[in-house]
Protein backbone atom coordinates (compact mmCIF):
# COMPACT_ATOMS: atom_id res chain seq x y z
CA UNK A 1 0.00 0.00 0.00
CA UNK A 2 1.42 3.36 -0.98
CA UNK A 3 2.26 5.75 1.82
CA UNK A 4 1.43 9.40 2.29
CA UNK A 5 2.71 11.55 -0.53
CA UNK A 6 3.46 15.25 -0.42
CA UNK A 7 4.31 17.66 -3.19
CA UNK A 8 6.44 19.52 -3.79
CA UNK A 9 9.29 18.21 -1.65
CA UNK A 10 11.19 21.48 -1.66
CA UNK A 11 10.12 25.09 -2.15
CA UNK A 12 11.93 28.39 -2.07
CA UNK A 13 9.82 31.52 -1.81
CA UNK A 14 10.34 35.14 -0.89
CA UNK A 15 8.65 37.14 1.82
CA UNK A 16 5.15 38.26 0.96
CA UNK A 17 4.48 35.46 -1.50
CA UNK A 18 2.00 32.69 -0.95
CA UNK A 19 2.45 28.95 -1.24
CA UNK A 20 0.25 25.88 -1.63
CA UNK A 21 1.32 22.45 -0.46
CA UNK A 22 -0.38 19.20 -1.38
CA UNK A 23 -0.90 15.94 0.47
CA UNK A 24 -2.38 12.62 -0.64
CA UNK A 25 -3.22 10.30 2.26
CA UNK A 26 -2.85 6.55 2.42
CA UNK A 27 -5.60 4.82 0.49
CA UNK A 28 -8.61 4.36 2.76
CA UNK A 29 -7.51 7.05 5.19
CA UNK A 30 -9.95 9.92 5.45
CA UNK A 31 -8.26 12.23 7.92
CA UNK A 32 -5.37 14.50 7.07
CA UNK A 33 -3.49 16.51 9.67
CA UNK A 34 -0.84 19.12 9.00
CA UNK A 35 2.12 19.90 11.22
CA UNK A 36 4.94 22.42 11.11
CA UNK A 37 8.39 21.39 12.29
CA UNK A 38 11.10 23.92 13.10
CA UNK A 39 14.32 23.53 15.09
CA UNK A 40 13.12 26.01 17.68
CA UNK A 41 9.48 24.99 18.17
CA UNK A 42 9.58 21.33 17.23
CA UNK A 43 6.52 19.68 15.75
CA UNK A 44 3.39 21.77 16.07
CA UNK A 45 -0.14 20.94 14.97
CA UNK A 46 -1.67 23.19 12.32
CA UNK A 47 -5.05 21.67 11.53
CA UNK A 48 -6.94 18.49 10.72
CA UNK A 49 -9.37 17.81 7.91
CA UNK A 50 -11.92 15.04 7.74
CA UNK A 51 -14.78 14.68 5.27
CA UNK A 52 -13.79 17.95 3.62
CA UNK A 53 -14.24 19.88 6.87
CA UNK A 54 -11.69 21.36 9.22
CA UNK A 55 -12.20 19.51 12.50
CA UNK A 56 -9.39 20.86 14.64
CA UNK A 57 -7.09 23.84 14.48
CA UNK A 58 -3.82 24.65 16.18
CA UNK A 59 -2.58 27.99 17.36
CA UNK A 60 -1.44 29.49 14.07
CA UNK A 61 -2.44 32.78 12.42
CA UNK A 62 -5.12 32.98 9.76
CA UNK A 63 -2.44 33.15 7.07
CA UNK A 64 -2.36 29.37 7.37
CA UNK A 65 -5.35 27.68 5.81
CA UNK A 66 -6.25 24.42 4.22
CA UNK A 67 -8.88 22.38 2.51
CA UNK A 68 -9.73 18.80 1.74
CA UNK A 69 -11.23 17.36 -1.39
CA UNK A 70 -13.76 14.59 -1.79
CA UNK A 71 -10.98 12.08 -2.52
CA UNK A 72 -9.39 12.99 0.87
CA UNK A 73 -6.46 14.77 -0.72
CA UNK A 74 -5.61 17.95 1.13
CA UNK A 75 -3.89 21.21 0.44
CA UNK A 76 -2.57 23.82 2.80
CA UNK A 77 -1.92 27.41 1.89
CA UNK A 78 0.27 30.00 3.53
CA UNK A 79 -0.26 33.56 2.45
CA UNK A 80 1.99 36.58 2.94
CA UNK A 81 5.00 34.45 3.78
CA UNK A 82 7.32 35.51 6.58
CA UNK A 83 10.88 34.41 7.24
CA UNK A 84 9.66 32.49 10.27
CA UNK A 85 7.49 30.29 8.07
CA UNK A 86 10.60 28.46 6.89
CA UNK A 87 10.03 24.95 8.12
CA UNK A 88 9.34 21.35 7.27
CA UNK A 89 5.62 20.95 6.69
CA UNK A 90 4.38 17.48 7.41
CA UNK A 91 1.15 15.86 6.47
CA UNK A 92 -0.16 12.87 8.40
CA UNK A 93 -3.03 10.60 7.48
CA UNK A 94 -5.17 8.36 9.65
CA UNK A 95 -8.31 6.29 9.36
CA UNK A 96 -10.07 8.38 12.01
CA UNK A 97 -12.68 5.99 13.25
CA UNK A 98 -15.28 6.96 15.83
CA UNK A 99 -13.93 8.02 19.19
CA UNK A 100 -14.97 4.75 20.76
CA UNK A 101 -13.62 2.64 17.94
CA UNK A 102 -10.38 4.50 17.48
CA UNK A 103 -9.27 4.37 21.10
CA UNK A 104 -5.53 4.25 20.97
CA UNK A 105 -5.29 3.05 17.42
CA UNK A 106 -6.17 6.15 15.43
CA UNK A 107 -2.57 6.29 14.41
CA UNK A 108 -1.13 9.00 12.23
CA UNK A 109 1.34 8.19 9.49
CA UNK A 110 3.54 10.95 8.16
CA UNK A 111 4.46 11.83 4.62
CA UNK A 112 7.99 12.82 3.59
CA UNK A 113 7.28 16.51 4.14
CA UNK A 114 7.73 19.69 2.16
CA UNK A 115 10.77 21.77 3.03
CA UNK A 116 9.82 25.43 2.66
CA UNK A 117 12.49 28.11 2.66
CA UNK A 118 11.42 31.74 2.79
CA UNK A 119 14.05 34.26 1.71
CA UNK B 1 5.59 23.44 32.01
CA UNK B 2 5.58 21.87 28.57
CA UNK B 3 2.76 19.45 27.81
CA UNK B 4 5.16 16.71 26.74
CA UNK B 5 8.71 16.69 28.00
CA UNK B 6 11.69 14.72 26.82
CA UNK B 7 15.37 14.97 27.58
CA UNK B 8 16.94 16.38 24.42
CA UNK B 9 20.09 14.30 24.81
CA UNK B 10 22.16 13.23 23.10
CA UNK B 11 21.84 9.85 24.74
CA UNK B 12 24.88 7.83 23.83
CA UNK B 13 24.93 4.04 24.21
CA UNK B 14 27.32 1.38 22.91
CA UNK B 15 26.19 -1.05 20.24
CA UNK B 16 24.32 -3.98 21.73
CA UNK B 17 23.25 -2.09 24.86
CA UNK B 18 19.73 -1.14 25.97
CA UNK B 19 18.70 2.43 25.23
CA UNK B 20 16.07 3.91 27.53
CA UNK B 21 14.12 6.94 26.35
CA UNK B 22 11.75 8.75 28.66
CA UNK B 23 8.79 11.07 28.28
CA UNK B 24 6.48 12.78 30.76
CA UNK B 25 3.20 14.48 30.01
CA UNK B 26 1.03 16.94 31.87
CA UNK B 27 -2.51 16.17 30.68
CA UNK B 28 -3.96 13.48 32.94
CA UNK B 29 -6.72 12.86 30.42
CA UNK B 30 -4.27 11.74 27.76
CA UNK B 31 -5.32 8.46 26.23
CA UNK B 32 -2.87 7.41 23.55
CA UNK B 33 0.88 7.56 23.37
CA UNK B 34 3.10 7.18 20.36
CA UNK B 35 6.79 6.86 19.69
CA UNK B 36 8.16 8.08 16.38
CA UNK B 37 11.69 7.85 15.07
CA UNK B 38 13.06 10.64 12.91
CA UNK B 39 16.30 10.42 11.01
CA UNK B 40 18.02 13.67 10.14
CA UNK B 41 16.32 15.30 7.17
CA UNK B 42 13.50 12.75 7.11
CA UNK B 43 9.93 12.67 8.38
CA UNK B 44 8.81 10.91 11.58
CA UNK B 45 8.28 7.18 11.29
CA UNK B 46 5.94 5.39 13.70
CA UNK B 47 7.64 2.84 15.95
CA UNK B 48 4.75 1.88 18.19
CA UNK B 49 1.81 3.13 20.20
CA UNK B 50 0.50 2.25 23.63
CA UNK B 51 -2.70 3.14 25.48
CA UNK B 52 -2.91 0.71 28.39
CA UNK B 53 -0.79 0.77 31.52
CA UNK B 54 2.08 -1.66 31.43
CA UNK B 55 4.47 -2.86 28.78
CA UNK B 56 4.02 -3.45 25.09
CA UNK B 57 6.71 -5.24 23.12
CA UNK B 58 7.40 -5.22 19.41
CA UNK B 59 10.65 -6.84 18.35
CA UNK B 60 13.55 -5.00 19.94
CA UNK B 61 11.26 -2.20 21.15
CA UNK B 62 9.27 -2.07 24.39
CA UNK B 63 6.99 0.80 25.29
CA UNK B 64 6.09 1.27 28.95
CA UNK B 65 3.19 3.37 30.19
CA UNK B 66 2.42 4.50 33.73
CA UNK B 67 -0.61 6.78 33.69
CA UNK B 68 -0.50 7.38 37.45
CA UNK B 69 2.98 8.84 37.11
CA UNK B 70 2.20 10.36 33.70
CA UNK B 71 5.25 8.69 32.28
CA UNK B 72 5.90 6.76 29.10
CA UNK B 73 9.18 5.22 28.02
CA UNK B 74 10.71 3.38 25.10
CA UNK B 75 13.35 0.69 25.54
CA UNK B 76 15.48 -0.38 22.60
CA UNK B 77 17.26 -3.67 23.16
CA UNK B 78 20.41 -4.69 21.31
CA UNK B 79 20.87 -1.12 20.03
CA UNK B 80 22.35 -0.81 16.57
CA UNK B 81 24.12 2.15 14.92
CA UNK B 82 21.11 2.32 12.57
CA UNK B 83 18.98 3.20 15.62
CA UNK B 84 20.82 6.52 15.85
CA UNK B 85 18.07 9.08 15.33
CA UNK B 86 15.80 11.46 17.20
CA UNK B 87 12.95 9.77 19.04
CA UNK B 88 9.75 11.74 19.40
CA UNK B 89 7.15 11.06 22.04
CA UNK B 90 3.62 12.09 21.03
CA UNK B 91 0.51 12.22 23.17
CA UNK B 92 -3.14 12.39 22.21
CA UNK B 93 -5.30 14.05 24.82
CA UNK B 94 -8.82 13.02 25.74
CA UNK B 95 -11.26 14.05 23.04
CA UNK B 96 -8.47 15.53 20.95
CA UNK B 97 -7.31 14.43 17.54
CA UNK B 98 -4.09 16.38 17.36
CA UNK B 99 -0.86 14.89 18.58
CA UNK B 100 1.24 16.91 21.00
CA UNK B 101 4.91 16.17 20.51
CA UNK B 102 7.86 16.38 22.82
CA UNK B 103 11.00 18.03 21.53
CA UNK B 104 12.63 14.65 20.96
CA UNK B 105 15.63 12.78 22.34
CA UNK B 106 18.63 12.33 20.10
CA UNK B 107 20.05 8.82 20.41
CA UNK B 108 23.59 7.96 19.33
CA UNK B 109 24.59 4.30 19.19
CA UNK B 110 28.35 3.95 19.16
CA UNK B 111 29.78 1.03 17.10
What do you see in this structure?
The complex is a heterodimer of chains A (119) and B (111). Chain A is built from one helix and eleven strands. Chain A has one helix at residues 99-102, and strands at residues 5-7, 10-13, 19-24, 31-38, 42-50, 53-57, 64-68, 74-78, 87-94, 109-110, 114-118. In chain A, strands 2, 4, 5, 6, 9, 10 and 11 form a seven-stranded mixed beta sheet that branches. Chain A is globular, with a radius of gyration of 14 Å. The termini of chain B are far apart. In chain B, the strands form two sheets. In chain B, strands 2, 4, 5, 9, 10 and 11 form a six-stranded mixed beta sheet that branches. Chain B has strands at 4-5, 11-14, 19-25, 32-38, 45-50, 54-58, 61-66, 71-76, 85-92, 99-101, 105-110. Helix content of chain B is 0%, strand content 54%. Chain B is globular, with a radius of gyration of 13 Å. The model of chain B has no long low-confidence stretch (mean pLDDT 93). Classes of the chains: A mainly beta (119), B mainly beta (111). Chain A binds chain B through residues 31, 33, 35, 42-45, 48, 55-56, 58, 88, 90, 92, 96, 99, 103-113, and chain B through 31-34, 36, 42-46, 49-52, 88, 90, 92, 95-104.
Percent helix of chain A = under 10%
Greatest contact between two chains: A-B, 27 and 27 residues
Which oligomerization state do the chains in this entry correspond to? Answer: heterodimer
Tally of helical segments of chain A: 1
Topology of chain A as a string of helices (H) and strands (E): EEEEEEEEEHEE
Largest sheet of chain A: 7 strands, mixed
Class of secondary structure makeup of chain B: mainly beta
Largest sheet of chain B: 6 strands, mixed
Content-based structural category of chain A: mainly beta
Give the overall pLDDT of chain A as a whole number: 91
Order of helices and strands of chain B: EEEEEEEEEEE
Count of DSSP-assigned helices of chain B: 0
Instruction: Give the amount of beta strand of chain A, in percent.
Output: over 45%
Radius of gyration of chain A: 14 Å
